[in-house]
Amino acid sequence: MHRFLATAALPLLLLACAPASPPPAAPVTPATPAAAAAPDARAQQALGEQLVAAFNDAWNRHDMDAFAALNAEDADFVNIFGMWWHGRAAIRDSHVGIHKTVFRQSRLESVRVETRFVAPDVAVVRWAWVLTGALRPDGQPAPDMQGILVHVARREGDKLQIVTTQNTQATDDAFRLVRGSDPQVKPAQ
């Protein structure tokens, strides 16, 4: 009888003493372009400058279809007055009317562009701009404007597509600092 119990218990004893099997390995998936390494600093800057050049070109041609196409379908845009548009169509529609009126003669120029990838496929593109040729609602010339645009953009192949934009108008003093023409101002004590 003991021999029978020992023979019957042996497989259970071996199973109990066997080392635990390792958990199954996670499936290996091939790297996607989005998971690839971020471009080097020179390529990062070039991608940002390419996006800004396309933005300026679309604006200066007053082509709001091309302007909108720079944005992802679900992008959002906050203008200098704090108006917030959601979606490519709303961004386009919000700019069409003003490009037929107060901005119909305007020219947008970038004066400084900085691009920084915060993930391999996500960049922050910050650039200082000058806008000339704008008109007041009564048709008279408006003063030139300057400011800073910030885009969060996703890398799509060899280009960036805007996911979100924040536009800020700058005062003359602040803008001189942005352009680097004045020494840094120290806060009052």
Short description:
With 189 residues, the chain is α+β, with helices and mostly antiparallel strands. Helices cover 33% and strands 31% of the residues.
Q: What does this protein structure show overall?
A:
The chain is of the alpha+beta class. 33% of the residues lie in helices and 31% in strands. It is built from five helices and six strands. The protein has helices at 2-17, 41-60, 64-69, 88-100, 172-179, and strands at residues 71-78, 84-86, 107-119, 122-132, 145-156, 159-169. A six-stranded mixed β-sheet has the order 2-1-6-5-4-3. Strand 1 and strand 2 (84-86) form a beta hairpin. The longest helix has 20 residues, at 41-60. The protein is globular and about 50 Å long. It starts with a helix and ends in a 10-residue tail after the last helix. Residues 1-24, 26-35 and 181-189 have low confidence and may be disordered.
- The average pLDDT is 81
Number of strands: 6
Order of helices and strands: HHHEEHEEEEH
- How far do the termini sit from each other? 96 Å
Supply the number of helical segments. Answer: 5
Radius of gyration: 28 Å
Strand order of the largest sheet: 2-1-6-5-4-3
SS strand fraction:
25-35%
Report low-confidence residues grouped into runs of 5 or more. Answer: 1-24, 26-35, 181-189
Largest sheet: 6 strands, mixed
**Fraction of residues in H or I helices:** 25-40%
